[in-house]
Amino acid sequence: MMANLRAGLIGLGMMGRHHARVLRSLPGVDLVAVADAAGDPHGVATGLPLHSDIDGLLGEGLDYCTVATPTAYHEELGLALAAAGVHALIEKPLAKDTQGARKLAEAFESAGLVGAVGHIERYNPALQNLRSRLADGEIGEIYQITTRRQGPFPSRIADVGVVKDLATHDIDLTAWVVGHAYTTVSAHTAYKSGREHEDLVAVTGRLANGTITSHLVNWLSPMKERVTIVTGDRGTFVADTLHADLTFHANGSMPTAWSDLAQFRGVSEGDVVRYAIAKPEPLRTEHEAFRDAVLGKEADIVTMRQGLATVSVAEAVLLSADTNETVKVSF
Q: Fewer CB within 10 Å: N-end or C-end of the chain?
């Protein structure tokens, strides 16, 4: 019987504590040590060696490591892991800029290591179900993807604004569900809470296949909203990722009796279907996929190259907002 993989975790904050919980219960994996320069604020290290830095963690003989520190430290920590021959799952965004993200992607590729990014929305059951339905052509040609991600300010975030912290979710999931990269973006941002980073962004974009995208993201709403709407020539899917629900609104085929409306060449309302889907915890699904990738199995991970692409789009969004011009995406 094969020995369990030896896993480490650096970063024991709000997200780190959830990674610790999942890693402790993951079959085929032993969480052997954790690290955080600020100690263990949520008490997740019970029974495990607690280190103050990556060097101490590397001394534990790790197979792989999860990095859940603030974004500013991702590049330095990731490069240390690559140099030590340790596979890594790094929280999103991959790095604070494209330069750092590219360095990480290249370091893990050249070392032959599995490097992944924690874009957890890809593992949301509603979006996984949506993606397979889009791939099967259930709504035909895809016209538009709209996302809204709104809620109150999270005190856990200090080093980035909504574009790199939140909009990166929507950038990644949008390119992923359709299977096409962004080509252009146009954005506006606002600074309303007295911080140096933007707390509201509105983005429109275009994907390589012509799909039009729209993202509304802020930290200024008293209610939480996480929705992805995909419109095509046969109807519209609405994925509520807060509750992992997926609903389909079909284009209707009923003739209309009202003569003014009869002149309208668009669509009419049809049947509405809400799908019953299994709802495993996305973070657990993400960790299972990464574990399988480390073991050399076929696994749906978010590669560092894909993480780099997302950071590139986020930077294009910020550049567009800064220059008030549409920006071509390159990475």
A: N
